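Case study 2.
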Amino acid sequence: MALMITDECINCDVCEPECPNDAISPGEEVYVIDPNLCTECVGHFDEPQCQQVCPVDCIPLDPARPETQQQLLEKYRIITAA
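Prediction:
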């Protein structure tokens, strides 16, 4: 699944530079994750880096966008042209 940022986000700016796919950007009120670019760091890291650095734990899986590990890996390959 792609990840999402909830409204508990405090706009601390630590997640954005950690995303290897540049999927995180400032939104109108809180940071947002582009689900077309989010691979949960599959292909880059063992765990989502944004979740690792978030001080308020506001980056859960997006239940509206279920994806398998294989689908995430395929998205990674498309994004990186690997």
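Residues 16-81 form a domain with the Alpha-Beta Plaits fold (CATH 3.30.70.20).
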